[in-house]
Amino acid sequence: MRLELRDITKQFPGVLANDRISISADRGKVLGLLGENGAGKTTLMNILSGLYRPDSGEILIDGETQVFRDPAEAISAGIGMVHQHFMLVPVFDVVESVALGSEPVSGLAATFDRATARARVVELSNQYGLHVDPDSKIEDLPVGVRQRVEILKALYRRSDILVLDEPSAVLTPGETEELFGIIRGLAAGGTTVIFITHKLNEVLEVADTITVLRRGRVAGTVLPHETSREELANLMVGREVELTVTRGPANPGETVLELKDVFVRNDRDEMAVRGASLEVRAGEIVAVAGVQGNGQTELVEAITGLRHIDSGHIKVGDTLLDEAKPRKVADLGVAHIPEDRMRDGLIKGMTVAENYILDSYHREPYSSTGRFDRVAIAREAAKGVKEFDIRTPSIETTVGSLSGGNQQKVIVAREFSRPVKLVVASQPTRGLDVGSIEYIHRRIIEQRDAGAAILIVSTELDEVLALGDRVAVMFSGRIVGVLPSEQATKEAVGMLMGGVH
Amino acid sequence: MSGLRRRLRPLAIPILAVISAFIVGSLFLIFTDIPALQVLPTQPLDFLGTAVGNVIKAYAALLTGSLGDPTRFADAFRTPTPENWATAIRPISETLVAATPLIFTGLAIAVSFRSGVFNIGGDGQFVLGALGATATVLLLRDLPAPVTLVAGLLAGIVFGMAWGFIPGFLKARMGAHEVITTIMLNYVALQIVQLALRTPFMRPATGSEPISKVIDFVRVPALIPLPGLRLHWGFIVALIAAALVSYFLFRTTKGFELRAAGLNLTAARYAGMSAGGSIILAMVVSGALAGLGGAFQVLGTVTQMSNDVNSGYGWTAIALALLGGTRPGGVVAAAILFGALNNGGHEMQIETSIPLDLLVFIQALVIMFVAAPDLVRQIYRLRRRGPEGGAPVEEGAAA
Prior knowledge:
Chain A is an alpha/beta fold.
């Protein structure tokens, strides 16, 4: 079916979230909807799925005006949503999850007709190459498969228009490739797909047309083969953006971080890091590539004092880390940008100022003899906000209400507010928009140039290649190769990531 | 948004919850009045008159019962004898007497909630504090009264602390869930009290009731020097405790650690804080507050230890902590409100023969409305609080 949104406007108090937005997608085509966080993508999709009603503008399906009073009406008009955060019941199996809400019934007691539901799930799964085992429990399935269950749910409800909201955010590169295959298959079968993302490469790869949103408006609609990453980034951000921050050659000094045959266990008591060895010197960036789950998380936690080392040793400067004490490690001059900022790095119910002092609150000038100096805290936090260009109404605003990019800047500002010898950054730009990525990268390179040793762990190959003076690859708990940046090509690193060496 | 409005914002839900509870309570009052309902089909206007009249009478009695009767104040001004003044002030004095233990236990629970620990053991900590205070003053009865009194209050703190420390330690070091351990320790505490009350040391010379000797030889001084007013300095100490708790939570590094652990344990650990330490500290502070409340109850209000020295203060405290938004000032306000309802209810029951249970009903409604803030928002068409000045949660929050 052909979908068209015409001049959609939605005003929230203080924010014009959608300002006369018009988009359209033909039957069997993939529309990429590209925009930074806060550009209005999610509002627009909430309007399309019946959660919000637009202040003005129309929704047309095959040329007919539609009014959705609630999500049920949008579903019955053929619109299926796959949300960024999945809406599945962990203890249900695939058939139950897919059928939930529109279960076929049989018999006098109108009991759930599992056989019919199952048959249809299998049929759809085969038809679109989704490869989902209908009888597995949701909680046992990897994230990529759960997403396919969500897609199945939409198809099961005979959706002709499928909306995917940031579908690759939770996927590995391999799973993302599979997803693209599925999207192409769906489109070939006549489904209209709307693919929402902030990742340039993805729309270029999978979309038939690309509409870029910026600050609630359409910044442009382009065709993938007539555009470039640079043009898309400029449309998204509204100014020239450096996709790869330029950096001078590294000037490595003495070794700051030394890992020797390190073994670390994960939470399930399995050996996750198995004999990793690596050195990071002052004034260089070592970027660790690897598919998620190859021991990177545990390795970083061991370096930052959050996890015990089973055997081997880790040295920061001349100090041997022999017990897991995050504060001791921080006192050695280690800045840590953790993997999951909302879980590990910030307390979202606390203010910007409180988060700014989260790991140095016990020191001067923030406190003495256990009591806070509120004047000093306000002064320093305001300085950090200014210096790191954190966009927040005030330092008393709770961090949870800031955008992802600004949240990450709070962490970076905090970690770099102390004297830094070593920076350990895990997924430093995950989920951030182009402008914030550029900013964070620039700050990290500044630290390098000021003489800090930098260890970056990222599953984004682009990031690893853009930042690493040396690229290390982690596979199955070991560092399986270290390449100088001139030898670190996508192919070479990709091979090592897959365990081929 | 102006600073003042931002400051007042957290008050909207609790205040509207209280108003809603009284409205629903009045409907309950109207529709359980069977004789009045019988005239409804024939004389609807009469019914309406009676109904509104009853509601006004009931709530007026509640007000005079909890705050005081204007005519008695007028009498006191006209003939200012101590007795007249005492009569005029007595209702509000009794309201604050009822509020005092609630402030202590409410603060105790608020501290634990702030640290993410659900202390359900306020009851146990309260009664053991009361027992410790009683035993101590009995033991030290020959010392000068002020010394005995202070020792008794300190004993209340120590006993409460100890009873808070146990579940705190078990959770921090062994991962035992505090809801289970504190509930169980409530029973243990009650049995300890039973046992203690049977010993000759505590038991009065005659009688078989489970009550202790009267300990009125030491008594927390009265706050208002008028005959028959029970309000004592424990109330002032409760207010000071609220101020100290507020200072502790928001102005000290230990309080910061405790709140950080309560909001996000992982991030607190990443920031180098000791999560176990915060849990134990929170439980110890919590226990100390509840224990001190118990000590003031026996040394200031009831002058005798018994099984029923605690009338569910530890449980009510959970509601108060929620109603007060786990802010010490809010807890004090909530405790005084509940004290007023408990105390004014008696007057209402006598004046209008409306059973005290209406007040329990209203208290339950208050808690229900506070626990369901979305319901209150819908009824009063409040906007949901979004980021940066009221916009609904946008994509920034998800990313």
